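Q: Hi! Curious about what G-D-S-L family lipolytic protein looks like structurally. Here's the sequence.
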Amino acid sequence: MMKRINIKNISLLAAAALALTACEPELDNAIEEGGVYTAGDADFSKLVTVGNSLTAGFADGALYLDGQTYSYPNILAGQMQFVGGNEFNQPLVNDNLGGLLLNGTQITNNRFVLTSNMGTPVGPAPLAGTPTTDIANKVTGPLNNFGVPGAKSYHLGAPGYGSLAGVPAGTANPYYARFSSSESSTVIGDAIAADGSFFVLWIGNNDILGYATNGGDGEDHNETGNIDPSTYGGNDITNNNVFAGVYQQLVQGLTANGAQGALVNIPDVTSIPFFTTVPYNAIPLDAQTAAFVNQNYAQYNGAMAAYAQTPLLSQEEATARTISFAQGQNAIVILDEDLTDLPDPTQPGQFLPKLRQATPNDLVVFTASTVLGTLADPSNPASVIGVGVPAGDNLVLTENEQQRISTAQASYNATIEALAQANGLAYVDARAVLADVANGGVAFNGGLLSSTYASGGAFSLDAVHPTARGYAYTANTIIQAINEQYGSTIPTVDIGNYPSVTASDNVN
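A: Let's find out. The predicted structure is below.
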C-alpha cells in the first residue's frame, strides 16, 4: 500500500519571519530637519495615482487600513509634500481585517497573518473577526488614489466596472464599486476628473498574472489572435495589440490637461514568492514506496518506450515523459498540455494522459503547498496528488507557459517605455529593481530585503503583493525615476522604518 506523504510545511520559512516581526528595526528617518528640496521642472501640487492592487496597497490577500496607509502612493505623496505636494486622499476601508461586505454579507476574505499555533509556526491563516467595510456605503469626497485590486488594463476604461448592481453578477469590481462616481463611470474617467498636476500609472500586471498564478490554465490571446477583451476569461493573457491600444488611451487621458507623470513597467511575475517557494521535487519517498509507485507506472512507461520507436514521439520527449521515483526527494508528477497527443493502445479513440515529472525549470505555484501529498480520493491511499495522481495543470507553470508570459510582458514594457519617452514622462523600471530583490536581495540600513517567503521582508503573506517595507522600496524606486526625469530632489524613505509581516494567533 502507498504511504500517505506529508509535504514539508512552509512553516519552516515562516518561523524565521515570526522572529523578525518581534524586532522590527527602529531607524532614523532619512529626511533631516531643515533639508531643502526642490520640485525641479515638475508640479507636484496634486498627485493622482492609477492602477491595480499594487496601487491600492493590497497586501496579505486583502485590502486593509494599514496596507493602504503604507501603500506606495501614500508614501510617495508624503515625500512630495517636501516639494509642493498637498493632501492625498484614498478610499480607505474601515478596519485592519480586510474583508468586504455587501449589504451585510461578507464577499471577500479577511487578510492573512502569520499564526504561531501556540509557539509552533504553521504559516499564514485568515485573521478572525467580522469586517466592517460595506461596499454599499459609497466613499464620497475628492480622491487621489484610483488603485483597483484585480483590474486589468482594459478594465480601467470599462463603463459599469464600478456598478454596485453588477458586483453580485461578477460583472463589476467590488473595490471600485465602493468609490465609483456613478454606476456607469470608468476608473480612468474618474481619475482624469480628479485633475491632477502629476500622475503615476502602474497597470498591466494582471494582464498576465492570472494566467501565471493559475499555472497557465487560460488562453494566450497572442496565440489566439483574439482582440476583443470583453470575451476574455479571468486567467487569459491580454493580446499585445489590445494592451498597446488601451495603454495609449490611458496616457492620452491622463496627460490631456498638461499633467506630468511617471509610467511604471511590469516586473517578472515569475520572480515573486508565489512561484519560488514550493520546490519541484516536493515528494519524499522511502525505497519501498518508490518501488511500489514505479510498478504502477510500468505500463505507462512501456507505452512511452514503444511510441519512441515510431514517428509519433521523439526519444527526447519519451525520456521526459518516463516516470521514475527513488528513495529521497522526488519531482512531482504533473500534467503538461503542451505534450504530444498519443493514442491509448488499450482504449480505442482515447489518448494517454500527458504526464511527466517536473524539472527545475518548472515553477510550482504557491497554492500547491496545500494540495501536494494529499489524497485525491480519501478512500484510496494510492491517490496521492503529485505521485499516484498528477498535479493539475493549474498547479505548475511550465517552461512554455513561462515563455508566453515573458513574451507578453516584454511587449507590454516596450509599449510603456515608448509612451514614456514620447510624452516626456518618467519611466520606472520596476522589473529591474524586483529582479534585484529576487536575486540575492537588496541591503538596507537594518537588514536585507529579499523575496524569500515570509522571512525576506519584501512580500506579504499572499506571496504576490509587497509588505509595507516592499511598498516603501517601490516608492523609492518611483521617486528616483521622477527625480531623474524632472530634475527634482524628492527625498526617499528609509525602508527599515516600515514593517514586514504580521504575526497573530487570532485566526479562523
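A: A fun detail: The first strand starts at residue 47 and ends at 51.
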